[in-house]
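Marked as duplicate of an earlier ticket. Keeping the data here for the record.
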Amino acid sequence: MLETEAQVVSCHGGEAMVRPTPHSPCGQCDPVHGCRSLSLARMFVLREPLFRVRNPAAAGAGDKVIVAVHERALLVSTGLLYGLPLLALLAGAVLGRALGELQSVLLAFSLFALTLWWVKRYAAVVASRHLFMPSIVRRVDPSLIIQEKR
């Protein structure tokens, strides 16, 4: 399971909207200015990211929680989102090669776009499956946060 810390923004039934706590996994943070890659990423973000997660821990708004997702779900999602469209692009280019350069490019981009459309529809179908949806695994004890800051 891959885990990260987040804060619950709102709750709706068995689900919650969470805002991930920003951190840098690289360990190369500047002690004075903080994480430069995080600062750079924030320049291009118009709003704070919010994610819908399952809430079996019954966390409430404002709670600090640990959110987890299965590694398998991440690998499958990455393969579908990046690998499959890339393979479709390459297959279209190779198959269209015999027809000419323009036809090869058109076929490659057509298969690429068709694959992206299919992945988007497939993602909507599997979004509710428990394997693919992140969930809150536990609340973070506020007393531990205070002890860590000292």
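See parent ticket for discussion. The two ends are 29 Å apart (CA to CA).
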